[in-house]
Sequence to fold (285 residues):
Amino acid sequence: MRVAANLLIGLLFGIGLVLSGMSNPAKVLNFLDLTGSWDPSLLLVMAGAVLVAFVGFRLVLSRQRPVMEPVFRLPSKAGLDRQLLMGASVFGVGWGLSGLCPGPAFTALGLGSPGILAFVGCMMLGIWTARRLRDSGSSVVEA
Amino acid sequence: MTEFTPLASLFGGALIGLSAVLLLALEGRLAGVSGIAGRLVSPDRTGAPLSAFAFLVGLVAAPFLAVALTGQSVVQVVSSNLPLMALAGLLVGFGAAYGGGCTSGHGVCGIARLSRRSLVATAIFMTTAIVTVFISRHAIGG
Fold:
């Protein structure tokens, strides 16, 4: 049941990426290219997603608990730290080099091209490495 | 060159937001894709790796479903420069996991929660990405 729900929610997320055009790295790179062939579409994707999530999260979090789990697992950190600043900076460089972030990378995996396979393989290696380097013993929940 | 698609992008974005709301309502988790992918390689089993895997399978299957539903092909232009893609993948994966989130976790879910950490992270990765594209496309000339 939980697995089926996750599959359907992932499908919906992916359909959103495809319809919004964000599954295409060329479109993302053009958003980032302010002084060249600028395509502002990504701003509207974020606006639509944040608006729905802003309202929806409030409705959901007014409930005692999620449907399939005993508690909500939300990030507990509040302050800024070196890891956040460094991680976000590094992430942006990789995003700018490829036009791919994790969600669109998975939607492009079905292409099966050597480029996307190399990207996703190295991305998983990067995630694995970072999770081992991060402060251990903390109850950090990923955003 | 890609076309500005305001309506499709707004609607697609709303679906992404809806997906995030559903995941929070059912599982009590935020829909950050780097975090979900991280649960696959996490040493402890509290991350429900099978659920995480199912979500990612949904992402991979989405373009195929979109083609079946709309009859239109999905355009995805991915670079074939292998060293570049390997380096970019490494930076994206490491940076997202080290910084606690990516475009979906910080950029959508975090901003929707008005998290200061996510607002700062999003501002930073937007900036470094824009600078990277400027250098690779205009300063070096790609």
User: Anything to note?
Assistant: Chain B has six helices and no strands. The mean pLDDT of chain B is 94.
